[in-house]
Amino acid sequence: MTTDLHARQADLLWILLFTIASTLTTLIFACATPFPALAALAAVHLDRRDGVLLMVAAWAVSQAVGFCVLGYPWDAATALTGVAIGTAAVAGAIVSSLVDNRVPARSTVARLAIAYVAAFAVFKLAILLWAPVIGHADVALSLPILQRQFVRYAAILAGFYALYRLLTAAGVPAPAAAPQPVTA
C-alpha cells in the first residue's frame, strides 16, 4: 500500500512538474503550449489516465495564462477555440499512449519520437476537424506554420526530456510508469 501511495505521489509530482514546464513555454512563446511534446512525455512516462490528466491540467493553466496574462479576448469564439485545443490535446495524449503501447521500440528516445509524431499528427487532425466551427484552419494548418511548430515542439520535447533526466538523476522519483533501467 505504501509503495502504491509513493508511486501515485511521484506520478502527481511529474504531472505538476510537466504542467509548470509547459506553462513557462506558454509564457515564453505567448500561447504556444506544446501539447504534442507533453503527450509524448506522458505516453512514455505516465499511464494513459495520468496523461489525460496532464493534458487537462496543462490546458487549464494555458487558458488561465491566455485570458489573465496574455489578454485573450473574453468571447465565445476564443472560448470555443480553447475547447478545440483542449480536446485536441487529450486526443493526442490518448493516441500517443496507444501507439507507445503497440510499437516495439526499446529505447526511450525512439519511443518519445514515435509518440511525438503520433501526438502531433492527432493534435493537428483534431484542430482540422474543429476548423469548420472555430475557423482559421488555413492559418493554423498551413505548411510553414506546421513545420515551424513541429520543430519548435520537438525542441521543447528535447528540453523537457533533458529536464526529466536531470531531475531524476538529482533524486526526484520517476513516475511509476517510467521505464526502469535494466540491471545486469
UniProtKB/TrEMBL annotation:
Residues annotated as transmembrane: 12-44, 51-72, 78-99, 111-130, 150-167
Alphabetical keyword list: Membrane, Transmembrane, Transmembrane helix
Protein name: Rod shape-determining protein MreD
Organism for this UniProt entry: Sphingomonas glacialis
Organism lineage: Bacteria, Pseudomonadati, Pseudomonadota, Alphaproteobacteria, Sphingomonadales
